[in-house]
Design brief:
The protein is of the alpha+beta class and 163 residues long. The protein has one domain. Helices cover 40% and strands 20% of the residues. It has five helices and five strands. The protein has a five-stranded antiparallel beta sheet with strand order 3-2-1-4-5. The longest helix is centred in the N-terminal third of the chain and has 23 residues.
Length: 163
């Protein structure tokens, strides 16, 4: 099925979310590719009226987390060379726009003596929304961008792992 045929099957809400996700994903890619880590790391950490407990803002968000995650996954199939880091950043931006307080996690896993694998994922209210993997618990969190800490921090990085 062609991209155009698939696009015609989307609801208006899904289509708007997909366009927003593609734009956010391209912006995240450009930021990661062309700016130093310290710059885009600051953008990921930015908070806008974050609650103190890291939970979603009061009131019901206009879009559920699953719909946003699906839009980011679809955008990842459309935008060439999009990886987990860019998808996590784009997803976090979209979640913030809809009133959620995402936590962007950056972690690594040692495969063998010579290989390390990095991964980025997004957690909201303790649930992995973007970047879920079957072996996610095998990744050691390096940086967690909690909206309620205001900066990258290993403190309480991943409660399931006890970091």
């Amino acid at each position: 099925m062609t991209i155009a045929a698939k696009a015609l099957r989307l609801t208006p809400t899904e289509a708007v979310l997909l366009v927003a996700a593609v734009i956010a994903l391209v912006a995240a890619q450009l930021m990661v590719w062309f700016t130093p880590f310290r710059f885009w790391n600051r953008w990921v950490r930015q908070t806008q009226g974050a609650s103190k407990d890291g939970r979603s803002r009061s009131g019901s968000p206009k879009c559920d987390t699953a719909a946003i995650a699906a839009a980011v996954r679809r955008a990842g199939r459309v935008v060439p060379r999009s990886r987990c880091l860019e998808q996590a950043i784009a997803g976090a931006w979209l979640y913030r726009a809809f009133g959620y307080r995402p936590c962007v996690m950056l972690g690594v896993r040692v495969e063998d003596a010579e290989t390390m694998v990095a991964h980025a994922w997004v957690i909201i209210d303790g649930v992995t929304c973007i970047g879920a993997l079957p072996d996610l618990d095998g990744f050691a969190p390096l940086v967690a961008h909690h909206p309620y800490h205001g900066s990258g921090s290993r403190r309480n990085a991943h409660k399931r792992r006890g970091a």
